[in-house]
Amino acid sequence: MENKKIILTGDRPTGALHLGHYVGSLKKRVQLQNTGEYKQFVMIADLQALTDNAENPEKIRNNILEVMLDYLAVGLEPEKTTFFVQSHIPALYELPMYYSNLVTMSRLERNPTIKNEIKMRNFERNLPVGFMTYPISQAADITAFKAKYVPVGEDQLPMLEQAREIVSAFNRIYKCDILVEPEAVLPDNENCNRLVGTDGNTKMSKSLGNCIYLKDSEKDIKQKVMSMFTDPLHINVSDPGHTENNPVFIYLDAFSTEEDFARFMPEYKDLAEMKEHYERGGLGDMKCKKLLNNIMQEFLRPIRERREQYEKDKSYLLEVLKKGTEEAIEVSNKTVSEIRNAIGINYFTDDSFIDKFVK
Ligand code: TRP
Questions:
Q1: pLDDT on residue 9
Q2: 3-class DSSP assignment, residue 327
Q3: How remote is the CA of residue 232 from the centroid of ligand 1, in Å?
Q4: Ligand 1 center to 200 CA (angstroms)
Q5: What angle do CA 285, 16, 144 make, to 5 degrees?
Q6: d(CA 44, CA 46)
Q7: Which residues pair with 316 in a beta bridge?
Q8: 12 lines ligand 1 (CB under 6 A)
Q9: Rounded CA gap, 213 and 119, in Å?
Q10: What is the pLDDT of residue 66?
Q11: Which of 170, 193, 242, 266 could hold 231 in an S-S bridge, CB 3.0 to 4.6 Å?
């Protein structure tokens, strides 16, 4: 591998990907991919998906190629990005075993993302050990590839912090500099860190049923946009409205461009002007939603069309994934052998071990 900086990210294959995934990470991945300056790995995190779906593996099987389709549909390209499946990488079983000795239980319990997810899933006493420790596994995902950059939404910041702690503990304890401290690459637009759902809930999420999927049909998109939550205090068109915390405006913020205004709503130069009118009163929700629908349709159509194209050749998808997985095994195995050397458990190949204990 040339000396390019390494990027790694992943997604749990528990459903097709949605706009939250797009603005939170996929968009950045495509941009970074196209700079040509990085070596990028994109991982389908099926092991992590199993941590709360052990009894439901079908769900994961059903979504492996769905996620691959979404990747290619948004413009990730197998010639430029390496795709692989987590469960097939031996390093990702081995490294967590070493790392888990460097992390305390109380540190895991303090991870805010885990805390929140435990609450959302009502685990209480039935919390799987594998779920509790997935931040350690995620640190392995990142470090096995020596990734420096990890494009994610801000909900993943605690995972990266934990990964950095593991890296620094490892390098310190085993007196080496093998592992690389990763950094998050967040979306440029703050609204995109955690895109609200169409219902105004703080997060777009499959389980809340408030998603617009990258593969949604024209009809579904329209129906979802037209029934979006807005400002509950904006009852009559003439009422002053709030644009803050108003999903329609949050989405416009995330997706609209000045060209969209010129094309679909020339009475405003840009979003700022439109917002001002809404806040002043006199601009109805319906009109705002129509604009958003136009913009979303334009944005999602090419993605959907590309997806349909790839859908005709599933064996190609599988081939891409298989080839990428082979490459990922090779790269991560190198890290494993360095790590075994650093810990000193490389008994059969280590001359100093043989000199000291055998000869
Ligand atoms: N936890 C991430 C999510 O839920 C998925 C993931 C697994 C990941 N391993 C990763 C993301 C490594 C970045 C890097 O979306």
A1: 98
A2: helix
A3: 35
A4: 24
A5: 125
A6: 6
A7: none
A8: yes
A9: 25
A10: 97
A11: 242
Q: Which domains does the chain have, with CATH numbers?
A: 5-194+314-357 (3.40.50.620), 216-309 (1.10.240.10)
* Cβ of 44 less than 6 Å from ligand 1: no
Distance CA 139, CA 96 (A): 8
* DSSP per-residue string spanning 135-172: HHHHHHHHHTTT-SEEE--GGGHHHHHHHHHHHHHHHH
- DSSP-assigned beta bridge partners for residue 9: 42
Å from CA of 160 to ligand 1 middle: 10
- Do β-strands 81-85 and 5-11 pair in parallel, antiparallel, or remain unpaired? unpaired
H-helix segments, 312-359: 314-343, 351-357
Give yes or no for a contact between 156 and 150, defined as CB atoms under 8 angstroms apart: yes
Q: Do 39 and 199 contact (CB within 8 A), yes or no?
A: no
**Residue 6 and residue 38: Cα distance in Å, rounded?**
6
pLDDT tens column, 174-197: 999 999 999 999 998 877 778 899
Tell me how far apart the alpha carbons of residues 143 and 141 are, in angstroms, rounded to a whole number: 6
pTM of the prediction? 0.95
pLDDT (0 to 100) of residue 62 = 98
Task: Report pLDDT digits (tens) over 204-225.
Answer: 888 888 999 999 999 999 999 9
**Alpha carbons 320 and 328: distance in angstroms, whole number:** 12
State the first-to-last Cα distance of the chain, in angstroms, to the nearest integer. Answer: 37
Residue with the smallest CA separation from ligand 1 atom 9 is 138
- Cβ 243 vs Cβ 273: under 8 Å: no
Calculate the alpha carbon distances from 317 to 41, 238, 292 in Å. 16, 52, 32
Which of 21, 22, 48 to probe ligand 1 with, by most ligand atoms within 8 A of CB?
Answer: 48
The pLDDT tens digits for 90-146 are: 999 999 999 999 999 999 999 999 998 888 888 877 899 999 999 999 999 999 999
Q: Which atom of ligand 1 is nearest to the CA of 138?
A: 9
Residue 51, ligand 1, Cβ within 6 A: no
Residue 147 Cβ contacting ligand 1 at under 6 Å: no
